[in-house]
Amino acid sequence: MNAIPCLRVEPGRVVLTGSWTLATMLPHLADLQNRLAVPLPAGEHWDLSGLTRLDSAAAVLLWRTWGNAWPEALEIGELHRQVLGRAADLPREMPAAVKHAFHPLESVGRLLLKAAHNLRGVIALFGQVLLDLAYLFRHPADFPRKEFAANVYKAGAQALPVSALVGFLIGVTISYLSALQLKSFGADLFIVNILGIAIIRELGPVLVAVLVAGRSGSAMTAQIGVMRVTEEIDALSTMGISRSIRVVLPKILGLTAAMPLLVLWISAVALLGGMLAAMLQLDLSLNYFIENLPRAVPVANLFIGLGKGLCFGLVIAVVACHFGLRVKPNTESLSANTTSAVVTAITMVILVDAVFAIFTRQIGVPQL
Amino acid sequence: MNESPVIELSGVCTRFGSQTIHCDLDLQVAAGQIVGLLGGSGSGKTTLLREMLGLLRPSAGRVRLFGVDLDDPDLLIQRTVRRRLGMLFQHGALFSALSVFDNIAFPLRELRCLDEDWIRRLVHLKLAMVELETAHGKLMPAELSGGMVKRVALARALALEPELLLLDEPTAGLDPDRSQNFVELVGSLQQALGLTVLMVTHDLNTLAGLATHVAVLAEQRIIAFGPKDQVMTVDHPFVTGFFGADRRKLL
Ligand SMILES: Nc1ncnc2c1ncn2[C@@H]1O[C@H](COP(=O)(O)OP(=O)(O)OP(=O)(O)O)[C@@H](O)[C@H]1O
Ligand SMILES: [Mg+2]
Fold this sequence. Notes:
Largest interface: A-B, 37 and 32 residues
Strand order of the largest sheet of chain A: 1-2-3-4
Strand content of chain A: 5-15%
Strand order of the largest sheet of chain B: 6-7-8-3-9-10
Shape of chain B: globular
Number of helices of chain B: 10
Structural class of chain B: alpha/beta
Strand content of chain B: 15-25%
Radius of gyration of chain A: 35 Å
Helix content of chain B: 25-40%
Distance between the termini of chain B: 32 Å
Number of domains of chain A: 2
Low-confidence stretches of chain B: none
Shape of chain A: elongated
Distance between the termini of chain A: 100 Å
Oligomer: heterodimer
Mean pLDDT of chain A: 88
Largest sheet of chain B: 6 strands, mixed
Order of helices and strands of chain A: EEHHEHEHHHHHHHHHH
Largest sheet of chain A: 4 strands, mixed
Helix content of chain A: over 70%
Bound molecules: adenosine-5'-triphosphate, magnesium ion
């Protein structure tokens, strides 16, 4: 049996032999295409009776060569004629894929519309959460205790080691850098003020928010997204279980509850790192640091920090759940929405932080 | 042509933890056979197919396709073997991020030898073969019905004109008409191209219309393999239970 596809041009006729399949044609493809592309005189006689195999890839190739029409004289086995017949039955005009031209104005508009759409979605989700809370207030037995506890554990307790590490290192870095500057002015003692205000009021909450948005926010989006892809969300609702009470609400409440605690934790660890660095760099005793901290940093700062933590947690969780619910059942959409969730959450956190800074500018600033 | 069997399993054992799925299983499928693989639910049919594809390594034993051991370290040989087979997964396994058209065009584009017009014609040809319309090419997998997913998956399995087709429940979820057309399609492809087909199926009509040989997987091994009419007379509780009163219909 001859496996190689063979093309012979004899006077007045073209003879094809061998096995014409995609696999056997591939090594000789360029050569075969060149030889088929040579224009043949009209009324050519095609002899395909010597073919051993003909698959649809080869049939399409031949059909194209014949200019989408049967040749005038064709000798071919019945089986192979059927294969060619399938290629011949294709509609002449096949719609090519439509390509969207890039238009700057249009894409900016599209982006704005998308942003507005997302904003509306986030607000709607927030409203839904409030309604659910009102419902749970009347039916406290329906409160998803287990899910809530699981979320506090996942988003809060499991984040303790990594946030401690990050907080400690940031505390050391800031303390070390400011100590260098303060030393040259002889204002060593102000390290307590600088560290205290910076970490408790600003850095602690923002650091935790960035960490948690990357860690728990993306996880929430991905989890809800996969539940949508695999139709688990639909299965839940067919059992009469509200997806917003069972899936979304515990996540939002869990993260909102866990964030202030994380803020407290990371601020404490960062201050510890700062204290140690100050002790080594400026010979400031730990005792002095701890005694002077309450005097240098009014307690209002702590409440501002915790309040920020609460808000950031809420923002991250609502954004993450919103994007999770927007996932369409395909992998591309899952990855795009997870990315958007993290990016949007961090941007929103910084926006909220700016708002906080403006509205609390008169509170908690030590009067010297 | 070489005479080595297309699929050759010898002494295959599979264990998941302490659970044994296959134990010392042998099977040889020769070129041109259409083999129906029968077995109860959970008896390890899909697992066996995965082992033939090299997606899962058996705990013991050897799997050879076209005479090539799947453990062969040569990547090029591995790739050529894989290009010679097409697989229809039980749940379709379509690429969810690609449209139907792109799903079928994907393996063709990967060859990097065919021009776009040729690919377009081929894809529409395959779509027509599985009775989908041109307009369906634009849909995403999530927008298809269960039976359509099956048909697109079949079209994708056929895209590279494979010599060996592995089908996991190809007609489950299709209406009787479509199943019949599927039987005719695979039958005519088999005649034209000399395909070898191994299909897992629970559908007696598909089996009767298509299979030349039947393999029965039970008690963790192949308890019977041979031409259809011979296997049906085997006296084993699973075989008699499976064919039951329909034994006549198949002959
Ligand atoms: N990855 C895995 N880990 C552990 N056990 C598995 C795994 N995959 C399959 N199994 C087990 O192997 C057994 C056979 O599964 P398999 O999917 O091969 O069944 P099947 O014969 O295809 O059944 P069906 O006809 O229902 O599709 C089942 O008991 C299953 O629980
Ligand atoms: Mg299976």
